[in-house]
From TrEMBL:
Sequence intervals crossing the membrane: 26-44, 116-138, 144-161, 192-220, 227-248, 289-306, 313-334, 340-359, 371-392, 412-430
Keyword list, A-Z: Membrane, Transmembrane, Transmembrane helix
Keyword Membrane annotated: yes
Organism whose genome encodes this protein: Nocardioides yefusunii
Stated name of the protein: DUF2029 domain-containing protein
Lineage, highest ranks first: Bacteria, Bacillati, Actinomycetota, Actinomycetes, Propionibacteriales
Length: 444
């Protein structure tokens, strides 16, 4: 047996891995269930980040032009954030992927009047597909139950639902790239891994860091330079495509591909204090990863204790997601703007961490799993509240002062308290019931 196979086929894991046929059947159910959930909860009044990208798709697909009418958003104070220039013409200044992803839907269902609905439905279906690929990746190296729970946590208890599946954001592409990349890595298909991670570059040009870190990490772990070459070649194609898009759309050669088509130093002028911006990504009450993902309090020690069960590609994704998020804090304001529920710029880190955290839970204790389940119930409720009702969240200026769920609790303290306690109890109860039904093997 090859060294690579020995690392991924540990004897104590094999009996739990379901057959390929069973994985495919469950994956189809996951796809259909999440597609229906996401489609029914898309927003028809999303952020202007989404609207302007959708408008660019509609112009290309229906009007067959990349030139934005001069009167579009003419009186908006932030027009120069979403609308760029190509010599004497106005153009959509959004990442290439968020414009291209909406083209098929608008080509088929665009109509003479612009609407965000075709793009919103596209985002829902693409994100449901991404979660299905994450399930297939996890189910290849872990039990079916663990794969389902891990996928469900990411799909329904994080802003993947309220942001990536709600409209075509850059995160719609980056989330798909990470999940598809995990699927390719679990199958040891390094060419596909490079190509699929490259999809994320079309959402954020600095997503290039993710395939770079994964390629270097796995190549060193397996002492195989060919892996780095394969992953690098696939992702390099997307990076070249970003440069070509910038030349075609904006008339300049640049790697940024969107926004003001300037340098990173230009972007950092948007805030004054780098450290507070970085901390905001993780700790801000309204836009931080930790306040919206309290299960991280349990996941961190579990990850440390269960690290031996995590394959190298999962560690690589986690590390790449962390580095990407730190760079994100250098390039963009931590709050990520307005008109969305939960955090936005930390989504990639959460998704990148999911495979390693899920696999590390295999040997966690029953008390740890019970605490995780209770917190998970609260987390699902908080995300579902904004996703189903299409709530906009707290405005960016208040991101350090309050939280959208707390604001909802202030306006209706008794009903919200009951809902939160019920959600925690339900999560705890489901885990205990599953434990009894499976003769001592908890949900995880």
């Amino acid at each position: 047996m090859l060294a690579e196979d020995r690392r991924e086929a540990r004897p104590d894991r094999q009996p739990w891995v379901p057959s390929a046929g069973r994985r495919r059947k469950v994956a189809l159910a996951v796809l259909l269930g999440l597609a229906v959930t996401y489609v029914l909860t898309v927003s028809l009044e999303p952020s202007l980040d989404v609207v302007t990208a959708n408008h660019g798709s509609w112009l290309l697909a229906v009007e067959h032009t990349r030139w934005v009418p001069p009167e579009y958003l003419q009186d908006h104070l932030l027009r120069d954030v979403w609308i760029g220039r190509n010599e004497e013409h106005d153009v959509t200044s959004r990442a290439p992927g968020v414009v291209i992803l909406g083209l098929p839907a608008y080509a088929l269902f665009g109509g003479d009047t612009f609407s965000v609905l075709p793009a919103a439905l596209t985002a829902a279906l693409v994100t449901a597909s991404a979660m299905t690929l994450l399930f297939l990746a996890l189910s290849r190296v872990a039990s079916l139950r663990l794969a389902l729970v891990g996928t469900g946590v990411v799909a329904l208890a994080t802003p993947v639902w309220s942001v990536a599946a709600d409209g075509i954001w850059p995160h719609t592409l980056t989330v798909f790239a990470v999940c598809a990349g995990a699927w390719a890595a679990a199958h040891r298909n390094w060419w596909a891994l490079g190509l699929l991670l490259g999809v994320g570059i079309w959402g954020r040009s600095h997503f290039t860091l993710v395939p770079a870190v994964v390629g270097i990490w796995v190549a060193l772990s397996r002492r195989d330079l060919g892996i780095l070459v394969k992953i690098g070649a696939g992702s390099a194609l997307s990076l070249c495509g970003t440069v070509l898009w910038s030349r075609w759309m904006f008339g300049v050669w640049t790697l940024t591909g969107s926004y003001r088509v300037g340098s990173v130093s230009d972007l950092t002028d948007r805030y004054e204090h780098l450290w507070s911006n970085e901390l905001g990504l993780f700790l801000s009450p309204e836009r931080g990863v930790l306040p919206w993902t309290p299960i991280a309090l349990v996941c961190v020690p579990v990850l440390v204790m269960g690290r031996v069960r995590v394959p190298d590609w999962a560690w690589a994704l986690l590390s790449a997601g962390l580095l990407y998020t730190v760079v994100q804090g250098f390039a963009q304001v931590f709050h990520g703007g307005d008109t969305f529920w939960g955090h936005r710029l930390g989504i990639e880190f959460v998704v990148c961490a999911a495979p390693s955290v899920a696999l590390a839970f295999t040997n966690s204790g029953r008390r740890t799993r019970s605490l995780f389940a209770a917190l998970l119930g609260v987390q699902v409720l908080c995300i579902a509240l904004g996703s189903i009702l299409n709530l906009p969240g707290v405005v960016a200026e208040e991101a350090w002062r309050t939280n959208a769920v707390l604001e909802a609790a202030k306006s209706a303290p008794v009903p919200m308290s009951i809902l939160l306690l019920a959600a925690a109890g339900l999560g705890y109860g489901v885990n205990r019931r599953a434990s009894r039904d499976s003769m001592g093997a908890d949900v995880f």
